[in-house]
Design goal:
Blueprint (H helix, E strand, L loop, with lengths): L12 E6 L7 E8 L4 E5 L7 E6 L3 E6 L2 E2 L5 E2 L1 H4 L6 E6 L3 H4 L1 E8 L3 E9 L7 E13 L9 E3 L5 E4 L21 E4 L32 E3 L7 E4 L6 E5 L5 E7 L14 E2 L2 E2 L14 E4 L8
Antiparallel strand pairs: 1-2, 3-4, 4-5, 5-6, 5-7, 8-9, 9-10, 10-11, 12-13, 13-14, 14-15, 16-17, 17-18, 18-21, 19-20
Length: 301
């Protein structure tokens, strides 16, 4: 079943007002801004006064103290262009207070998907420097099923959800040699590929396929269809993955914080807990903790 990330917040942005200073309760949501096709929201570390909102078109807007700032933080619409999926991922560096880095994931013209880093202005915490853009990852893609959620785990590495690019019939999400249908883990503080302008990152040494042949070093988990919304549990560090089904089931997977990666979440051999094709024994796969019939799923922390 197809789900578009823009449907998550398409009508506008609503924030829950805290009913208690200790954060134990929340009041009813209040609509503070009407933003068309908002796709992701994030707070910078150490700054709860500003909520940054990404739109599919590639704009980053700021809601500060409950009001939409009149000036956009970033306009990346030229980079996104008229590509199908748009901008779907936004996160801040764990060391943001010192390096002022944040990241967006977006589709781009000519069927590409891009992970890019920007730096916030040293004098204005709500304004990015557009000239600071650094493409960390660029890959060929298609019009749909490119995933696009990004965030940092407690280990300091950047996690990126992918999709099967609507190529589920060829079994590529099960192959460790392809980019389709995978979850990735990257070290954005290094560069193991100095001669490759499309790969400006390092490989975390604990990645399950690092150094193995065949196998892509970047892969963290396999068997993904289109995990467009995920979340790290702020207390436990567990990773929650909402993955879109193929028309019959929708699922949520939980990866515990102590995982060493390498989980196979089943697609296209399994859709949720429903068998689709014989790819091997069931013991090969990690099955969802939530398996539902044909409903859209959004995971948030």
């Amino acid at each position: 079943m197809f789900r578009h990330a823009g449907a998550v917040l398409a009508a506008g942005i609503s924030l829950a007002t805290a009913a208690a200073a200790d954060g134990q309760g929340f009041g009813p949501p209040q609509q503070v801004a009407a933003l068309t096709n908002a796709s992701a929201v994030a707070y910078p570390p150490g700054d709860r006064a500003r909520l940054f909102v990404l739109t599919l078109s590639g704009m980053v807007r700021v809601i500060e103290n409950g009001a939409l700032a009149p000036t956009a933080c970033l306009d990346a619409t030229a980079a996104v262009g008229n590509s199908a999926n748009g901008a779907t991922g936004l996160c801040f560096d764990p060391e943001y207070t010192t390096n002022r880095y944040f990241y967006i994931f977006h589709s781009a013209p000519l069927g590409r998907v891009v992970l890019a880093r920007y730096q916030m202005s040293a004098t204005d915490p709500a304004l990015a420097d557009p000239t600071s853009r650094l493409v960390l990852l660029q890959r060929p893609g298609v019009s749909q099923h490119t995933g696009g959620w990004i965030d940092f785990g407690k280990d300091g590495y950047l996690y990126l959800s992918g999709g099967d690019l609507w190529q589920d019939t060829n079994g590529s999400p099960q192959s460790v040699t392809t980019w389709t249908g995978k979850f990735f883990r990257l070290d954005v503080r290094g560069d193991d590929f100095p001669d490759d302008a499309a790969r400006n990152y390092a490989i975390p040494p604990g990645n399950p396929f690092a150094g193995l042949h065949p196998g892509l070093d970047e892969i963290w988990a396999t068997g993904i269809r289109n995990a467009y919304r995920c979340s790290f549990d702020r207390l436990t560090g567990d990773l929650w993955i909402a993955d879109v089904g193929g028309g019959l089931r929708e699922e949520v997977n939980r990866q515990p914080a102590n995982s060493t990666g390498g989980e196979n979440y089943g697609w296209p051999c399994w859709e949720g807990n429903q068998f689709r094709s014989n790819c091997g024994p069931a013991s090969m796969f990690t099955f969802p903790i939530l398996d539902l019939e044909g409903v859209p799923l959004v995971v948030g922390s």
